[in-house]
Design a protein that fits this description.
alpha/beta; Aminopeptidase; 6-stranded mixed β-sheet; two-stranded antiparallel ribbon; 9 helices; 41% helix; 19% strand; disordered N terminus
């Protein structure tokens, strides 16, 4: 006999399945925590993830990624500076919302630990901050002639043409990792759900997990759209849009998640912007406005 609480949740969530195909990502949330149908839900905790950090040994002989570099600055420093400002702004401007940093110092934090921090703190949103960069372009140059034929040499030239923001959500091909995170951090947190009901080979459990997956994906895309709109429409910044990517830390966090590429650190104009108080304050203000709009949407029924 399967747990009655789990079945009750499933029946409530399943009622929204048919309606999912009828609405855009911007207007529909599956029933459950964080949906307009749940009048008790509140955004209480936002996880702020400062991407990368200083290299240091992992204990297994490897190193964490230090991130991208500009002419005079480093991604790891910019993301930490913006993350700390964002934490303060969220807690000052959003009522009863706590912001939790995954990295508070220069030292890097493994992606597994970032996701663990997010899940352990019961985050309602996960926002990862990064700086973008383009790789070198490879150009063939004529360096001489032999027997009346040109001799070519390939050189690498920095590509500084990238400008503006890019918002990423996790790719749908990483579903197994997401299912596992949801199982441990959403479904299992109901103390009444017994071990029999938590068998992932059981269709009952998988229905519930799939409903959470659908909800989190749509909410991630909605939040990404809101952030992108603030950057482009309020700040007038160029944008590469919203894309999906197989990012470990996003798919292992059991909540709506987005990764914000705040600018191209190897572009001189963007680098100056990312390192300026004006630029950092604008980035923070845009993200906070987006969170506020998202918060208003998912809490609208209870107002």
């Amino acid at each position: 006999m399967k747990n009655k609480t789990l079945k009750k949740l499933i029946y409530g969530l399943a009622a929204s399945v048919v309606s999912l195909a009828l609405f855009s990502f911007k207007t529909i949330y599956p029933d459950g925590p964080g949906s307009p149908a749940d009048s008790s839900f509140r955004i209480k905790t936002v996880i702020v993830d400062a991407g990368h950090g200083n290299w240091h040994p992992t204990g297994t002989g490897g190193y964490f990624s230090k991130g991208a570099d500009g002419t005079y600055s480093h991604e790891r420093d910019v993301t930490l500076a913006v993350a700390k400002k964002l934490q303060i702004a969220i807690e000052n401007q959003l009522t009863d919302v706590k912001a939790v940093l995954t990295r508070k110092t220069d030292d890097d934090v493994a992606w597994q630990d970032r996701a663990r921090i997010a899940n352990a703190n019961k985050g309602d949103l996960f926002i990862s901050l990064h700086c973008n960069s383009l790789g070198d372009r490879h150009i063939r140059e004529v360096v001489g002639h032999r027997h009346h034929k040109p001799i070519f040499h390939t050189v690498s030239v920095p590509d500084r043409s990238g400008r503006g923001v890019l918002i990423l959500v996790y790719g749908t091909w990483r579903t197994k990792e997401e299912e596992n995170a949801i199982k441990h951090n959403q479904v299992e947190e109901d103390a009444e759900v017994n071990q029999e009901a938590m068998d992932t080979n059981d269709p009952t459990t998988m229905i519930l997990i799939n409903q959470f997956k659908a909800k989190f994906r749509k909410q991630s895309i909605r939040l990404a759209n809101l952030i992108n709109d603030e950057f482009t429409q309020t700040d007038g910044r160029p944008s590469d849009g919203i894309r999906e990517q197989g990012i470990y830390v996003l798919c292992h966090s059991a909540m709506p998640t987005v990764l914000v590429e705040m600018g191209y650190i190897n572009n001189p104009q963007d680098e100056d912007y990312l390192n300026s108080d004006k630029g950092q304050n604008e980035i923070v203000a845009s993200i906070v406005r987006a969170i506020q709009k998202y918060k208003d949407e998912v809490e609208q029924v209870s107002k």
